[in-house]
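Dear Dr. H.,

I hope your travels went smoothly. While you were away I took the liberty of generating a structure for the chain from your last submission, since the lab meeting agenda had it listed for discussion. I wanted you to have the full record in hand beforehand rather than looking at slides cold. The sequence, exactly as received, is reproduced here:
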Amino acid sequence: MSIKIMIATTPIRPVPTNFPPIGSLGIIKHLKTHGHKDVEFYHIDANRPAYDDVISHIVEAAPDIIGISAVVSTAYAYTKQLSLDIKRLLPNTLVVIGGSLAASAELLLRRTGIDICVTGEGERTFLKIVERCETTRNPADFADIPGLALIDVNGFVINTGYEEQLPAEKVYDFDWEDLEAATDMSIYVSPVFDGDEPESVFREDPRTYEPARRDKNMMMIPAAKGCVAKCTFCHRFMKGIRYIPVQRVVDNVRYVMDRYNVGFVDFCDENFGTDKRWLRGFCAEIKKLDILWRVAGMRVNCVDPDLISLMKDAGCSAIQYGMETGSATMLEVMEKKVKIGDNYNAVKWTIEAGLRTVVQLVVGMPGETSETIAETTAFAKFANTQSPSQCPTELSINYAQALPGTPLYEFGRRHGLIGRGLDGEEDYLLRISDKNAHDEQNTLNFTTHPKLVCETWRLWIQLETNQAYVEKFGLDHYKDVLLRYSQHFERRKDTGYYANPKRLVDRSETTDTINEVKQAIVLDDGDRYPGLWRLVSSWQIGLATICYPTLFYRLRHFLLVLVILRNLRYSGAAGTWKMCREYMIWRFNRHVRSRLKTGPRSLRKIVNDWTPDKADTEAMLPLRRGR
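The corresponding predicted structure, in token form, is as follows:
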């Protein structure tokens, strides 16, 4: 019996991500390698068809089994609607979901059209599902396959544990042809030079301007899977890290060099180069290709000046780190397993070597206070004043976003920030559907400070950092660097990767995510600097604070007023009054919410000390804890 299979992605961000869907492609190759050739890759995330067209296409294809890839938990609303419609129109199709959203397995199994959740790596598990699908479509008949959550014959949710992980030599093994057949590759391949200025990642590297690189493209390629740590805000189904053999990484690079004229590569790993032996072998081989490359994620305690020099010699132009905070207390809460000195050293050594980096932060975790924000501010000022060529707005500040399967999510449930039971969990996942962590309007407040105060923190860090840069290098130089990095405020698409203030500079526009209205105001072209009144009158306040750093720095003690005005615009009078009332009660010490009294301690240890929620089934407990 031939099984007709479809693998479908879900939209991840407002625009298609330029990160190739390696997980789905790996499953497709694994299926084909084991004799299942009738596999269609329906790449909804990249192609963005109208929803009615999606349903029509799936119904016409009528697959025996469809695997929905929901790699982010913010895909719940789309996944629910899609799976319910598939089940209504194709009742005999087995609907399987994989990805991080599967951490909410019970909700998916009870409230959507999902039949089976894959709770880990998909290649081996999905193959076994397909093979079983040849004889049955009853979800309960799959209960002996490891790596699943499903509803058994008695109506209970069960968890079959985890499937054995793939060996490193099999990780992210895929065929580019499967992606090429599914979508326009221009989503993943982009020119580095847009006019006279190159992509900002490579802008400060003199090698970028060599004539042979002028027409080269850039692409993202993975070199590893996983991470050596488990941050308490990060969901993880896999254990540890596996590095793809160097030769296979090089082969992937060679393929896109030959086929797509790629000369710049973004190695899009969470945890690049922790294995020093692998890193040295990689640098030796990648240097032979004469490409320039960026590391999208590296640990601050895994670098030193010699390694950075080695990487630069092999073509590295930029290294980004998950620094997250400048506070030792918050590093403990996040369970980063690094020291605050590691953050300072990494950024100092990277910039001294002439490589670029972006300061990426997460604020608002439990235990965050004005004091820890002051420590993070000091770190941001240090990092972005190391060199006059370092743009001060290369600063990305996200709010902590609670995702299922993380200690942060369980903290939110225990303290009533996320409602109890399936109703509460669904309300929350619907609320954050299609929302990025930079959206302060939808973030939860995990701190003992009122939300109005928390919403000032990102802007406070930005204003202090920009002013420190102005004081060290001068206002004229600040403006010159800003104009260059913003490409004179030409509007570009929002990749969804960075948060404010870098996101504002990259996009040069404002998006009202609350009312789902996207209205962009393109600023002045050429060398003209955007006028203050134009920015303020068009409610481009974020850009105004960036373009006029000293003025807004002097007004920084009135940030609370600015936040109130912004909330009046987005939340209305009733919502804003509620926040003001919370602030006044807190200000006069009548009631201070106590959420984290244990001091600098891992949030995971705090959550693990609690008695499990009685509302949770036994099957869900391992998924709640993460892996």
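Two observations you may find useful: The chain has a mean pLDDT of 89. The longest helix spans residues 559-587.

With kind regards,
E. W.
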